[in-house]
Design goal:
By secondary structure, this protein is α/β, with parallel strands linked by helices. The protein has three domains: about 60-240, HUPs (Rossmann fold); about 270-345, Tyrosyl-Transfer RNA Synthetase (Orthogonal Bundle); about 355-420, RNA-binding S4 domain (Structural Genomics Hypothetical 15.5 Kd Protein In mrcA-pckA Intergenic Region, Chain A), CATH 3.10.290. The chain is built from 18 helices and 13 strands. It has helices spanning about 10-20, 25-35, 45-55, 80-90, 120-135, 150-155, 155-165, 170-175, 175-185, 190-205, 220-230, 270-275, 280-290, 295-305, 310-325, 330-345, 365-370, 375-385, and strands at about 40, 60-65, 95-100, 145-150, 210-215, 240, 355, 360, 390, 395, 400, 405-410, 415-420. Strand 5, helix 11 (about 220-230) and strand 6 form a beta-alpha-beta unit. The protein is globular and about 75 Å long. The protein starts with 9 loop residues before the first helix and ends with a strand.
């Protein structure tokens, strides 16, 4: 490929590339697929040039995603970047799933105003065992290259680390937003924190990455990789950042601490019901970021809804796709059947049975002990909102004492348990 540098204009780059590698309709389609749902693609003309060269030479591009094996707590928000990786994998490119077992020892300070404690080797080893298994629910395991950055980071040694550090300045490090805020605020910055973006950048050198993916909070680190590749005489990688998925509340990013999340290990019925609970407007963002359907299919569905089709039907399509991905098509069908049954006032066939002693017991404590609410406070809130039923009868008295017996306890629209109270 013609050498690309920052002094060349987009028109110059495309003209030079097109003279050697044609921008075919297939290349243009791959370019649009790359941009689908992304927050930022840098540099777009360079990526188009890489795609054109790859198509002409039949040499797949090398696409990297690095994840540090922190304690796994995977929800749909975490899968946004993995979905993009799968789209690029389906275009025929080489996907590298990089486990940061070495960089985890440093601790990533991205987005933090305090030093992040590094993980121990034991914690890293334990967490790394689950990462690829979780990623394989989205990626094609047979076409995914798994690497650990300790492969090249540990052999660097002290001399290699010093040489690497000489290729980047403190001034440039302080351009990073969180470092700048901490420096101005008098909050300590440890020297080892500067090593994290350097080591992540060196991963791109070691892997000869053509494109690196990450969340919006990783932009600085991704750019360091691009600059280090230039320092080592390599063609610089492009970078692609993905937006943060908005949670079920339609306001904040998806987060377990905010309770607005959909966990990938949740049971099919819970997952299905949560997806159907999102707003009609938010649904299209979920389609773009989470669905494997083509943009044309999504646009056609959007047009159908605009012309009068019930938005709920579109949500059902999305919910069944997501449940099938993380469970099975049979589970998705059963979840739809149960949802429709509950919508008519029915009770699902398969609900947990719970034995509780201590009758008579307060209704809030009963709900808590049945694991239908995380606390008595939350249970009382559900009672006040009319969301608690015993055998279909709405409970409004927070002071109710429930006597011994067997009955179905319902909290909200989706939580049921058959209670054996003694």
């Amino acid at each position: 490929m013609t050498s690309i540098n920052s002094t060349e204009t987009p028109a110059t780059i495309l003209s030079a590339v097109a003279a050697k590698y044609p921008i075919t309709p297939e290349v243009q389609a791959a370019f649009e697929q790359t941009k689908r749902g992304c927050e930022e693609l840098l540099v777009e003309t360079e990526w188009l040039a890489k795609l054109a060269k790859s198509a002409a030479t039949k040499v797949p591009l090398r696409i990297k995603l690095g994840l540090d094996p922190t304690a796994p707590d995977i929800h749909l928000g975490h899968t946004v970047v993995l979905n993009k990786l799968r789209q690029l994998q389906d275009l025929g490119h080489t996907v590298i799933f990089l486990i940061g077992d070495f960089t985890s020892l440093i601790g990533d300070p991205s987005g933090r105003n305090i030093t992040r404690p590094p993980l121990t080797k034991e914690e890293i080893a334990l967490n790394a065992q689950t990462y690829y298994r979780q990623a394989s629910l989205i990626l094609n395991p047979e076409k995914t290259e798994i690497r650990y950055n300790s492969e090249w980071s540990e052999p660097l040694g002290a001399a290699g680390m010093i040489q690497l550090a000489s290729r980047y300045t403190v001034a440039r490090m302080l351009e990073r937003d969180d470092f700048t805020k901490r420096f101005k605020g008098g909050i300590p910055i440890s020297v080892h924190e500067f090593l994290y973006p350097l080591m992540q950048g060196y991963d791109s050198v070691a892997l000869r990455s053509d494109l690196e993916l990450g969340g919006t909070d990783q932009k600085f680190n991704l750019l360091v990789g691009r600059e280090l590749q230039k320092e080592y005489g390599q063609e610089p990688q492009c970078i692609l950042t993905m937006p943060l998925l908005v949670g079920l509340d339609g306001v904040d990013k998806m987060s377990k601490s905010k309770g607005n999340y959909i966990g990938i290990s949740e049971n099919p019925g819970e997952m299905f019901g949560k997806i159907l609970s999102i707003s009609d407007e938010l649904m299209w963002s979920y389609f773009t970021l989470l669905s494997f359907k083509s943009l044309q299919e999504i646009e056609a569905l959007k047009n159908e809804v605009a012309q009068g089709r019930n938005p709920k039907e579109a949500k059902v399509i999305l919910a069944q796709e997501i449940v099938t991905r993380f469970h099975s098509s049979a589970d998705a069908d059963k979840a739809l059947e149960d949802f429709n049954h509950r919508a008519k006032g029915g009770i699902p066939d398969d609900i947990p049975e719970v034995s509780i002693s201590g009758a008579p017991i307060g209704i809030a404590q009963l709900i808590k002990q049945a694991n239908l609410a995380p606390s008595a406070t939350e249970a009382n809130r559900n009672i006040e909102q009319g969301g608690v039923r015993i055998d279909g009868v709405v409970i409004t008295d927070r002071a109710l004492k429930v006597d011994a017996g067997t009955f179905v306890l319902q909290v909200g629209k989706r939580k049921f348990a058959k209670i054996h109270l003694s």
